[in-house]
Specification:
Layout lengths: L3 E2 L8 E4 L4 E6 L2 E9 L2 E8 L21 E5 L4 E4 L3 E5 L5 E5 L4 E4 L5 E3 L7 E6 L5 E6 L11 E4 L22 E9 L2 E7 L5 E5 L6 E6 L4 E6 L4 H12 L12 E5 L5 H13 L6 E4 L20 H10 L3 E6 L3 E2 L5 H9 L13 E3 L2 E4 L6 H10 L1 H4 L5 E4 L20 E2 L6 E2 H4 L3 H16 L7 E3 L11 E3 L7 H15 L6 E2 L1 E2 L8 H13 L3 E3 L15 H16 L1 H14 L4 E2 L1 H4 L13 E3 L3 E3 L9 E13 L5 E11 L7 E4 L2 E6 L12 E7 L5 E7 L13 E9 L5 E9 L8 E7 L6 E4 L2 E2 L2 E3 L10 E4 L5 E7 L6 E4 L1
Parallel strand pairs: 1-6, 20-21, 20-33, 21-22, 22-26, 26-29, 29-30, 30-31, 32-33, 41-45, 48-49
Antiparallel strand pairs: 2-3, 3-4, 4-5, 5-19, 6-7, 7-8, 8-9, 9-10, 11-12, 12-18, 13-15, 14-17, 15-16, 16-19, 17-18, 23-25, 24-25, 27-28, 34-35, 35-36, 36-39, 37-38, 37-39, 40-41, 42-43, 43-44, 44-51, 45-50, 46-47, 46-51, 49-50
Length: 809
């Protein structure tokens, strides 16, 4: 039964559509279909009478929508579809406007705007009004400033490698990942819009006309989803409800990873990993590029250089390294190879119009390409993954999956006219191109899940489409080793996060392998605040392990990587939260401070979760760095000095400096130093507390770090609260618990900053002994002390299930 209330009388140009919980408006041969998916999600589908009645979607995870109440309202001018969160108003000529229920305009069309008639060559489009102050974020992987207003962008997954740069050139568009979703910010009110069309798209965001944005598609229909805010967080929650969320990654994925195209033979891989351990540089992952393969065949190993891959993987696992291997989608044409023969026999490859498998040139030479829009082909590909996981391989790295080829005369990709199965609705590669990587990732994830049911799959992909977060993390591809490329990386990571992809990173040092020591050190700092942290480089450049740049840079790298591992409990909690809500791990300041115009296009700073503001140094030769701090109190991460915002501060930035500030109210869980993420269960857990006038909360998430027992309740989710109490006191402790997972017994350390006024500390109503100096705390079972300058108060005591600390004077 539909929950949509339809009026007794209505205009002739409106037809109720109870099956889709909406309506159909028509004008001449044009149709506008509105459907309610949720209180804050409405589908807007534009077509002509010649368009197909159905729309294919690879981005949307389900078509099973909950029943939600809505109503249709009619007045003299228009018809309004109303939900609890949105009003979408349609006029007789089919132009529309959309507002939230507070009356804030989200979408605005005037007569003449709206659906753009297909040109003679096909295609479709939409045009809407945009006021000068509106901002646009997201769009997946795009270079340039954080705010994309004034930009014109193409959505067509592309490998733009240029030999002159050793990667993609500056201002390159398009790149590897196409996500046709954006967050609009209009008068500090956010909304989202997904254009669910996988053909080549063009987004002109007020680049041609200062008051108009235009979206055009090469073919198909204009199928859009409108997401209500008013906050960016609510928009992303709704968008990822529709397109899916990141699965919880294994904890080791959040550590440091070392990679190079060129680690060969296996003894060199062991040497690199052993050297990382010998030098005391924490690390969790080692990544093997195509040099490990047998004649560039995916799922194989070079018999000479990697004669015993199982022994190699076990050797690396014994010293804490998880091995990940690269997999390209192309299959070498080799009648002697069983994998090629089986795929050909089953008809799993993309075909030309005459029905023969398409052959192209990639690393193995003549190659064919699986049709990942075919469920049977995906199942076959998934079965191939077992060959790697049976050896102990823990991660799979999907490369060249735009898909990329070596044929420059065809744009280095597959031809549009190839035939694809299209999930049972045959289509051409013009529609399948942008989702090729998405469907390959799905097949690979499914294969890993089936082959190792007690381990969480971890995939890293170069290409993707809307929904890629369901299966894989994303890195920004072949960025050259230049200051410009590093500068462009941060807003790219931030906009990927605002596109529903929380686990993102870059090639630390740049792929071309020509980093200077200064550039490498600064990129290492950027990598340390990135959700995915990996150093990778080309065999055609210099080696880029941390010790290749001299003792100073090695020491700086060791320090910043160590700081990353101390934050692992915080990062893992953020990753879990992202898997539940779609919230980014790394966020632009505008995400947290939406009402502050100064943050609107601030792309060289970021919030790591809700508490840490990072301002990495992205300019060559910089000795000072300006940092904007929004309203509120901020603590310098190193000294604890308090700064009141809004204010711009200028800091001296020596090579080892990564400007970090902590937001007042922060509850930061910290771990002791470790060599790798599961080296041993932590013997202590520290909370760094940065008090604010109002109370604050943080949820610490813990489990065993891998596997799926957490889905059965074997996790610990504890909400900690910090806030004022009677008489000027301050309280801190756990308030709510969920889950059956119990960490091993450990010592708790609670460090309170700005603590000069406190001189008494009680644990569960019992006064803790004051030890005087900080040093004896390391040996004490319980007690507290202050730093010599009186700014920090530190308490230690054995952890118990329920406890409360009271700071007073």
């Amino acid at each position: 039964m539909s929950l949509v209330e339809y009026p007794a009388s209505r205009p002739s140009w409106i037809r109720p559509d109870p099956a889709r919980r909406g309506l159909v408006a028509h004008c001449d041969d044009r149709r506008l279909e509105l459907a309610v998916l949720a209180d804050g999600v409405v589908r807007l589908r534009y077509r002509t009478v010649r368009s197909p009645l159905w729309s294919r979607s690879w981005a949307v995870r389900t078509q099973d929508w909950p029943e939600v109440p809505a109503s249709i309202l009619v007045d003299d001018e228009a018809v309004t579809l109303r939900t609890r969160c949105l009003d979408v108003r349609v006029f007789p000529d089919l132009h529309l406007s959309a507002t939230d229920r507070a009356g804030h305009i989200l979408l605005q069309e005037v007569p003449g705007d709206g659906y753009l008639e297909p040109a003679s060559g096909g295609g479709c489009g939409i045009q809407r009004h945009t006021p000068p102050q509106e901002r646009f974020y997201g769009f997946g992987e795009k270079v340039g400033p954080l705010d994309k207003r004034g930009r014109s962008m193409t959505f067509w997954n592309t490998d733009p490698f240029d030999d002159r740069y050793g990667g993609y050139p500056p201002e390159t568009d398009p790149l590897y990942v196409s996500i046709p979703f954006f967050i609009g910010l209009r008068d500090q009110v956010a909304y989202g819009l997904l254009t669910d069309n996988s053909t080549k798209l063009r987004f002109d965001m007020a680049a041609t006309s200062p008051t108009v944005y235009r979206i055009t598609a090469a073919a198909g229909v204009m199928d859009q989803y409108l997401f209500a805010g008013p906050s960016m967080a609510e928009v992303l929650h709704r968008y990822t409800w529709l397109t899916g969320r990141m699965p919880l990654p294994p904890r080791w994925a959040l550590g440091y990873h070392q990679s190079r195209w060129g680690y060969h033979p296996d003894s060199q891989v062991v040497e690199v990993c052993t050297e990382l351990r010998r030098r005391g540089i924490p690390a969790d992952g080692i990544w093997l590029d195509i040099q490990h393969q047998d004649d560039y065949r995916s799922f194989t190993w070079d018999k000479r250089g990697f004669a015993n891959p199982r022994e190699l993987v076990e050797t690396l696992e014994a010293i804490g390294f998880k091995t990940s291997v690269i997999v390209d989608p192309c299959i070498k044409v080799d009648p002697q190879w069983a994998v090629y023969r089986e795929g050909a026999r089953r008809g799993h490859y993309l075909k030309t119009p005459d029905g023969t498998p398409h052959v192209d040139e990639v690393w193995p030479g003549h190659s064919v390409f699986p049709d990942f829009t075919c469920p049977e082909a995906r199942a076959w590909w998934a079965s191939l993954v077992k060959a790697q996981t049976d050896l102990g391989v823990r991660g799979v790295w999907l490369d060249m999956n735009e898909p990329a080829t070596f044929r420059k005369d065809r744009g280095r990709t597959l031809p549009d006219h190839l035939l694809a199965r299209g999930e049972g609705r045959p289509t051409t590669f013009a529609e399948a191109h942008n989702v090729y990587a998405l469907q390959q990732a799905k097949a690979t994830w499914d294969g890993m899940r089936a082959a190792q049911p007690k381990r969480r799959p971890f995939l890293l992909t170069r290409a993707g489409f809307a929904g890629i977060q369901r299966h894989a993390a994303v890195w920004t591809g072949d960025s050259p080793s230049t200051w410009q490329a590093m500068h462009d990386t941060l807003p790219m990571l931030l906009n990927l996060g605002l596109s529903g992809v929380p686990l993102v990173g870059s090639d630390v040092g740049g792929f071309s392998g020509k980093a200077t020591s200064d550039l490498y050190a600064r990129w290492m700092q950027l990598g340390a605040i990135s959700p995915f942290f990996r150093c990778h480089t080309s065999k055609n450049g210099n080696r880029q392990e941390p010790w290749q740049f001299g003792p100073q840079v090695e020491n700086l790298s060791r320090s910043v990587i160590g700081d990353r591992y101390r934050l692992l409990a915080y990062l893992y909690s953020l990753a879990h939260h992202a898997s539940q809500t779609g919230e980014p791990i790394l966020r632009p300041l505008v995400y947290e401070f939406q009402d502050d115009p100064a943050t609107a296009n601030l792309g060289d700073q970021a919030m790591l979760g809700p508490w840490l503001l990072a301002a990495p140094v992205l300019q060559k030769g910089a000795t000072t760095r300006k940092v904007y701090l929004p309203a509120g109190h901020w603590y310098d991460y190193g000294s604890g000095t308090v700064v009141e915002g809004p204010v711009t501060v200028e800091l001296e930035v020596a090579l080892g400096s990564l400007p970090l500030f902590v937001r007042a109210g922060a509850i930061l869980p910290m771990l002791e130093p470790m060599a790798w993420s599961d080296f041993e269960a932590p013997r202590s857990l520290r909370f760094e507390l940065y008090p604010a006038k109002a109370g604050s909360r943080f949820v610490l998430y813990e489990d065993d770090g891998d596997g799926f027992d957490f889905e059965k309740g074997a996790f610990s989710r504890v909400e900690y609260a910090l806030g004022p109490a009677d008489g000027g006191a301050l309280l801190f402790g756990p308030e709510r618990r969920e889950g059956t997972y119990e960490p091993r017994p450990r010592q708790l350390e609670v460090r309170l900053w700005a603590a000069s006024r406190f001189s008494r500390l009680e644990l569960d109503g019992r006064e803790l002994p004051a030890l005087g100096a900080e040093e004896p705390l390391a040996k004490a079972s319980e007690g507290w002390s202050k730093s010599p300058d009186g700014t920090r108060l530190t308490a230690v005591f054995p952890e118990r299930r329920d406890w409360s600390l009271r700071f007073s004077f």
